[in-house]
Design goal:
The protein has about 230 residues and is mostly helical. It is built from 11 helices and no strands.
């Protein structure tokens, strides 16, 4: 699946509908969810056809050269084409370098924001913890500015304010990448709030911002929780 060369217009054509997944309008969100469901069905059907061909080749003892056959390549291409229209698959093939100029960046942010705003819908329709983790790690590599940085700051503050979800601890990487007065002020407010989870998690993130040498490890988190009891 090659998407690195696709421009903004091509990304919008393929998965622009996903911008509706975070709409405050339930009707707009329902339309986007229906389109995602249809796209996911296309992915499932393409994968089923590929798997059927693989099993047939295996049963006939033809797997050794099967991947070089024209029909196999057609099945693979059809599967890749279907994936390009659906979350989370469309986000899997990312550049190895900086994502700052990647046309898929708005949709990577959208995928994470969707989980933050509508976690139940995200979980039902596109849950993929590995994709979430890898996106966060990739986004944390780069120096983001302006609107992108503001969206990342919001993702961090949303994460510390909710009950823990799988891979949320990865957001410490984002916090360290976009560290600044605005983020620290938001974290300090959360750490002083009536929300017990926000107090615990925001305080932890601030601790790691104040000491860049501390690893964001399970053990560091456990020690922090023990001291907070």
């Amino acid at each position: 699946m090659t998407t690195n060369s696709d421009g903004e217009a091509e990304w919008a054509r393929r998965i622009g509908y996903t911008l509706g997944l975070t709409s405050a309008d339930p009707g707009e969100r329902a339309i986007a969810l229906a389109r995602l469901a249809a796209a996911r069905e296309g992915v499932n059907e393409a994968l089923a056809r590929f798997n059927e061909g693989w099993f047939q080749a295996r049963d006939l003892g033809r797997l050794s050269g099967w991947y070089q056959e024209p029909e196999t390549r057609r099945l693979l291409a059809a599967n890749s084409a279907a994936q390009r229209h659906a979350f989370p698959d469309a986000l899997w093939n990312r550049p190895h370098g900086p994502l700052t100029d990647w046309p898929g960046l708005p949709y990577a942010l959208q995928f994470l924001e969707w989980e933050a705003r509508f976690p139940r819908e995200w979980t039902l329709h596109a849950k993929k913890w590995g994709t979430k983790q890898d996106l966060i790690r990739d986004l944390a590599r780069d120096a983001h500015r302006g609107a992108v940085r503001a969206r990342l700051v919001r993702l961090v503050t949303d994460a510390v304010a909710r009950a823990y979800r799988c891979k949320d601890r990865e957001y410490v990487r984002i916090a360290r990448a976009v560290d600044g007065d605005d983020l620290r002020t938001a974290l300090a407010t959360a750490a002083d709030s009536d929300n017990p989870w926000a107090r615990l998690h925001a305080g932890y993130v601030l601790r790691l911002l104040n000491d860049p040498t501390l690893p964001n490890s399970r053990r560091t988190w456990q020690i922090w929780c023990e001291r907070a009891e």
